[in-house]
Write a structure and sequence with these properties.
There is one protein chain. By secondary structure, this protein is of the alpha/beta class. It contains 33 helices and twelve strands. Helix 22 runs parallel beside helix 32 and helix 28 (705-716) packs antiparallel against helix 31.
Amino acid sequence: MSNSRFVHLHVHTEFSLADSTIRVPAKPDQADPKKAKQANLLSRSVELGMPALAVTDLNNLFALVKFYKAAEGVGIKPIAGADVMITEEGQDPWRMTLLCRDREGYLSLSRLLTRAWMEGHRPEGGVAIHPDWLKAGNANLFALAGRDSLAGRLALDGKHDLAEQQLADWQRAFGDGLHLELTRTGRDGEETFNRFALMAAGQRGLPVVASNDVRFLAPTDFSAHEARVCISTGRVLDDPKRPRDYSDQQYLKSAEEMCALFADIPDAIDNTLALAERCNIEMRLGTYFLPNYPVPDDETLDTWIQKISRDGLEERLQKNPLAPGKTREEYFERLEFELNTIIKMGFPGYFLIVADFIQWGKNQGIPIGPGRGSGAGSLVAWALKITDLDPLPYNLLFERFLNPERVSMPDFDIDFCMDRRDEVIDYVARKYGRERVSQIITYGTMAAKAVVRDSGRVLGFPYGLVDGVSKLIPNILGIHLKDALGKGKEGPGSEMASAELIQRYESEDDVRDLIDLALQLEDLTRNAGKHAGGVVIGPEPLSEFCPLYAEHDENGLGKNPVTQFDKNDVEEVGLVKFDFLGLRTLTIIDWAVKAINKRHERAGIPPVDIAAIPLDDAPTYKDIFANGNTGAVFQFESSGMRRLLKDARPDRFEDLIALVSLYRPGPMDLIPSFNARKHGQEEIIYPDPRTEAILKDTYGIMVYQEQVMQMAQIVGGYSLGGADLLRRAMGKKVPAEMAKHREIFREGAAKDGVDEAKADAIFDLMEKFAGYGFNKSHAAAYALVSYQTAWLKRHYPAEFMA
């Protein structure tokens, strides 16, 4: 650590959700002051030369992984901790700050916070830990007892004997881990408590530590901090009766400022460094921990996935025709390649877990989609009935899903009937243990329009003024206030900029005050929610990886728990995410098929199997797609898509896959050429004769990411795994990386006699299309659902449209 004598051990961030404006960088590089888009906890700490730092948000560890990675990246020692509320029946809650000594301390804190959210909901809101839980489960935790602790409260009431009894009680629980926290921020009672704490420390041999109970970065942030508190509590800034619980001194002070503030108690400064040196948490990031999937006694995960995949493919091929030009041997060669990759990368358990809960859902009659995302490119997934689309007829690539040259978890996205998705999640919880299964948290932020309205309310401005200003912000997804003010990277001439807002901001004081406050609060984390479909399944109780967060039921017990780490951070700590997504269209298809088959049964007609309908039904293409008659047809309902269909006149399934992929910003520009080439009005040109096999289904136009990969393989000599790395690099547009790949591509092309100029031209073409190429596996799976709805509309309109 640096030579600084002081470490901040008590810091709240935006993830306390109510009482801090301190931002935590979402990406580690933003901790560097030279790269940070705006000041944040780490960039400011770097500027102040802080050797270490603790984050202690209220009753949660939401920020921990982001904070840990960012701090490590800039050489600041991260200290994990939390402010916790503590109470027992009949007692007002009080506060203590807990810091983790090491990984065992982290696990203790994770278990305590999980229990608080599952068992400790308070009628007046929030959660608290029972003192007995903390006394029994504080292994390797340090505790800071300050003005807001029970001992502090008793001391401020003049009940020194009871306060000392409290300290004695907690000293027995924590041993040498108990510290007394001294603050000098100008709040009521601080000096009274400090005098008591110094006396008690001398009598009981307890160390004291200086703290600033930090809630904002700089003195100039105090007004924004108070506004954030008012937004949370529903108060107005000018309300003389609102609580003033914070002072303008609770900013991230420098070591010099803190040393001067506690010049008369130098031990309180030195002890912060001593305590920081005792905190040595190591987060185990980047290693995956799958739940234990049960297999027969004489099998391993590897042998079992091989057996059931081979059997499953045999069953599939007995019921489905081979892809044109493919042999059974080629199918089984592809299967063995995929199995070897899956086993080598250690993912058989993942595939088996997904196959198990999908099969259970199908056995219960729960509608499940044919596939989603890049997983539809896996033949093993088709053999295991995870997907219902044979990848070979459509040239779908396994390497786009699981790249043997890039170790990362596979990620199956599964669509379930919206009404019955929770049944499958409940099955998983029962199979693996409810304490090992949870959905994943998301965080809502203060977005542009909403933060303007919130700021106007706490400023007490008239509704008409605030509403009018808010409506001047263009309705563009993800827009920021600086964009609307013409100060974003697009400049004042962009569609995001609002000329009237700029004019009013420059000429009206109230509008300027409103926007300036909103700018300080924009994008701060506002609330916790639930990921649309993410579920984690752990090999142990999830609190051994991260704490849980929960709503409460009518009895005050936690329900519908979610991880305290978001989808990125939960994977960092080793939990594997499974996506259980709800799709209403599957429910509609299911209703229609059941109604059709009920009628068929009465009439003695064979039932409809929606998974077995022919994909070359001419009436479906002619009457539904080519006519733009696609109301209620999945993915093709919009007026723009209907116009596209009338122009394109699709007559085969490959056309539908392409149209799903093209109808997006960017590739839309290719649509006129696609249509003209399809109908013989424009010459089809291939960049190299060898690429015809890759591009003929899209009339010589690169539409899919998979086509970029195959071009790299055929022309540049890449493996498909290497081609996937090239595709990713092209998407990132890092100049040094692109220069390296260009040289590799040139060398590979030269081996087949392609000169440098032509190789560069093809590489440039690939680079251009890689930026907006679509995942064909996902497009094919969704085109299948689209086709099923169109087929039902054409042949069974009464049941489908009912």
